[in-house]
Specification:
CATH class of the domain at 16-152: Mainly Alpha
Protein name: Non-structural maintenance of chromosomes element 1 homolog
Strand order of the largest sheet: 3-5-4
Number of helices: 8
Order of helices and strands: HEEHHEHHEEHHEEHE
Number of strands: 8
Largest sheet: 3 strands, antiparallel
CATH topology of the domain at 16-152: Arc Repressor Mutant, subunit A
GO molecular function, one term: zinc ion binding
Enzyme class: transferase
Structural class: alpha+beta
Radius of gyration: 19 Å
Strand content: 5-15%
Subunit structure: Component of the Smc5-Smc6 complex.
EC number: 2.3.2.27
Shape: globular
CATH architecture of the domain at 16-152: Orthogonal Bundle
Length: 249
């Protein structure tokens, strides 16, 4: 077991490192894995617009596809924060360069590139083939995500870290979102769990993201809310209804 003094000493050490790294736009960031609560740490770029410096080793076309997938996942309807393999391949046919001309990316190339993104740990692929954000992406692209998508990026009410998988309050207007591991800890000794924000009875069945065995919609439908950069959502075709819960999955 790690003593409290050791934890404090390690935190002080990381803070000192970050003080020296600020000048080169780098920072050590810590969080807990969304799926199991395991502590993770990453050296990250603090300049949100330098996504190309983070996702190194990709061609401009491959990086553009990466950004399309990121956009589709973050803006997925009903806070699903994932897209199906069919939808991911469909996005490959929507790529355009700065001159608004189509970029060539075959289905086979897109499939290989998706496998590469998974191997590089930028995305997670569920058993049912749904793509979602990895902890590497949430940590290394944290600044980019927050600056690009604004309040479309949700934070856990308890740990204040970005959340794309977990639980949410059953009251639509309530802002409470909890990671599974944060929820387990917070409600551990409560006979009648209540929302930490609005104090409504808490149901662990109202989800953010999809359970591992659930299938994402085959077509992308983006949320209608506007992002900070002014781009409108509500773009595509088909999605499952709102109010998803564990029983639906």
């Amino acid at each position: 077991m790690i003593e409290r003094s050791d934890q404090d000493g390690f935190t002080d050490f990381i803070n000192q490192l970050n003080g020296g790294l600020n000048n080169v736009e780098l920072e050590f960031r810590r969080a807990q894995d969304e799926l199991n609560g395991t502590p993770v740490m990453a050296l990250t770029n603090t300049n949100g617009q330098k996504i190309a410096q983070v996702a190194t080793g990709y061609t401009p076309t491959e990086l553009e596809y990466f950004k399309h997938l990121l956009d589709a996942i973050v803006m997925a309807d009903d806070e699903m924060f994932c897209i199906s393999s069919t939808a991911a391949l469909h996005e490959a046919g929507r790529l355009k360069n700065k001159e608004n001309k189509p970029l060539a990316l075959t289905k086979r190339e897109a499939e290989n590139l998706l496998d590469r993104y998974i191997a590089d740990q930028w995305f997670i692929r569920s058993k049912a083939g749904a793509y979602s954000l990895s902890m590497r992406t949430l940590l290394e692209l944290q600044t980019y995500l927050k600056e690009t998508y604004g309040d479309q990026i949700q934070e856990c009410t308890l740990c204040m870290e970005i959340i794309t998988k977990g639980q949410r309050c059953s009251v639509a207007a309530c802002s409470s979102r909890l990671h599974q591991h944060c929820s387990s800890t917070y409600f551990r000794n409560m006979n009648n769990p209540k929302c930490p924000t609005c104090h409504t009875a808490w149901s662990s069945k109202v989800l953010i993201g999809l359970s591992d065995g659930a299938s994402a919609p085959s077509k992308v439908r983006k949320r209608a809310a506007r992002r900070e950069n002014g781009a409108a959502g509500g773009e595509e075709d088909d999605a499952e209804g709102s109010g998803r819960n564990q029983d639906d999955a």
